[in-house]
Amino acid sequence: MGAHISIPMYQRAVAQRYRLAGQKCKKCGKINFPPKAVCKYCQASNEFEYVQLSGKGTVYSNTVIAGGGAPPEFAEEAKCKGSYPVAIVELEEGPRVIAQLVNPPEEGYAIGMPVEVVFRKIYEEEGVIRYGFKFRVATQP
């Protein structure tokens, strides 16, 4: 196993992983996700208002990860399932996130396709199941 994330560090990220909690910069008004200590857009502010992100977005870019290219935390999944789709998703609120895509449509995922967040098991470490967000084709536009 590669990139170890301690249980306390994982617990600090629960709001962003389970609720898509972002932060709106009080200076420039842009949404930071995942949350940062300083605004990644204006670098001038560390004052934020927490916002609930909708979980809706569009595929900005996508690829398929094959077994040999899987990060260590997904090695087991790659062994079981083979390849899997991953995308950069542009959220309605502006931020772009990298996430795994699930339940691909027959024609596959395409740039511009509307997607929505789902929460699924990511991997298990130290006997703790780590959940997080993935995306699927949006059921409603």
TrEMBL record:
Residues 50-120 form the ChsH2 C-terminal OB-fold domain. InterPro entries: ChsH2_C, ChsH2_Znr, NA-bd_OB-fold, Thioester_dehydratase-like. Residues 13-45 form the ChsH2 rubredoxin-like zinc ribbon domain. Pfam families: OB_ChsH2_C, zf-ChsH2. SUPFAM superfamilies: Nucleic acid-binding proteins (SSF50249). It comes from the Bacteria. This is Zn-ribbon domain-containing OB-fold protein. It comes from Desulfotruncus arcticus DSM 17038.
